[in-house]
């Protein structure tokens, strides 16, 4: 089978089959198009996500190995369990989405970031339409950690997280898992594995296996109260 990069057309829903993605760089599938809500949602339903820098065209990816986790399988270490029991943080849902995505972008400025101003605007629009969501971690009324991503049915596609206090991003991830599971969420896509995610229980699966799950889960509804603005409480086990 030939593998090549597709130049996207103006039709937002048209993406090539993810199996056609390049092996080097792994997962690069297409370039071009835009970041409209229709195109972004079409991409996530097909296991594709945008990732590029300011000086590049929009690039769309579907890597051969996908980092995922069942929410019920999040790993809480003994030290994290102790931290949760200390009740140092307040955790909210969808209270400060704009601040979370900006903080994620700011945290990566020195290394270059794919969370460009255009990306921030696009995902904020998705949030306003009810598709992108955030978990916030607060300490003494200051935002110290968080995570944001896109929820389609019982699949949550995580985009980025940040911390300004030790372990605050881990708290945000654990909170996402527990909250999403409570409302019927089945799978969290973390895109590309790294040691931080692995320590929380995230594992790799093949693109083919992930796509089979995603195709079904994006058609199944999540609990209606999952993404309303609210304060949530963590369990230490």
UniProtKB/TrEMBL annotation:
Record has Membrane as a keyword: no
Role, per record: Functions in the N-end rule pathway of protein degradation where it conjugates Leu, Phe and, less efficiently, Met from aminoacyl-tRNAs to the N-termini of proteins containing an N-terminal arginine or lysine.
NCBIfam families with a match to the protein in the record: aat
EC number, UniProt record: 2.3.2.6
Species in which this protein is naturally found: Motilimonas cestriensis
Lineage: Bacteria, Pseudomonadati, Pseudomonadota, Gammaproteobacteria, Alteromonadales
Main subcellular location of this protein, as a coarse class: cytoplasm
Key words, A-Z: Acyltransferase, Cytoplasm, Transferase
GO molecular function, one term: leucyl-tRNA--protein transferase activity
Keyword Transferase in annotation: yes
InterPro entries (UniProt xref): Acyl_CoA_acyltransferase, Leu/Phe-tRNA_Trfase, Leu/Phe-tRNA_Trfase_C, Leu/Phe-tRNA_Trfase_N
Name of the protein in question: Leucyl/phenylalanyl-tRNA--protein transferase
Subcellular location: Cytoplasm
Gene3D superfamilies tied to this protein: Leucyl/phenylalanyl-tRNA-protein transferase, C-terminal domain, Leucyl/phenylalanyl-tRNA-protein transferase, N-terminal domain
Catalytic activity entry: L-phenylalanyl-tRNA(Phe) + an N-terminal L-alpha-aminoacyl-[protein] = an N-terminal L-phenylalanyl-L-alpha-aminoacyl-[protein] + tRNA(Phe); N-terminal L-lysyl-[protein] + L-leucyl-tRNA(Leu) = N-terminal L-leucyl-L-lysyl-[protein] + tRNA(Leu) + H(+); N-terminal L-arginyl-[protein] + L-leucyl-tRNA(Leu) = N-terminal L-leucyl-L-arginyl-[protein] + tRNA(Leu) + H(+)
Family, similarity comment: Belongs to the L/F-transferase family.
């Amino acid at each position: 089978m030939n593998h090549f990069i597709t130049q996207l057309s103006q039709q937002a829903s048209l993406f090539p089959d993810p199996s056609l993605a390049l092996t080097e760089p792994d997962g690069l599938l297409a370039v071009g198009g835009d970041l409209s809500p229709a195109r972004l949602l079409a991409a996530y339903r097909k296991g594709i996500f945008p990732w590029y820098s300011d000086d590049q065209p929009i690039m769309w990816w579907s890597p051969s190995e996908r980092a995922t986790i069942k929410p019920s399988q999040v790993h809480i270490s003994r030290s994290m369990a102790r931290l949760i029991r200390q009740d140092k943080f307040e955790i909210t849902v969808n209270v400060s989405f704009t601040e979370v995505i900006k903080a994620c972008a700011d945290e990566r400025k020195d290394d270059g970031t794919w969370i460009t101003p255009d990306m921030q605007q696009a995902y904020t629009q998705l949030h306003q339409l009810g598709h992108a969501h955030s978990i916030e971690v607060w300490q003494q009324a200051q935002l110290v950690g968080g995570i944001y991503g896109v929820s389609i049915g019982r699949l949550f596609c995580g985009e980025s997280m940040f911390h300004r206090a030790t372990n605050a991003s881990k708290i945000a991830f654990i909170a996402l898992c527990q909250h999403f599971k409570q409302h019927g969420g089945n799978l969290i896509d973390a895109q590309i594995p790294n040691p931080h995610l692995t320590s929380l229980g995230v594992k790799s699966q093949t693109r083919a296996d992930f796509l089979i799950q995603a195709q079904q889960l994006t058609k199944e509804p999540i609990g209606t109260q999952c993404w309303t603005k609210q304060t949530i409480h963590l369990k230490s086990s």
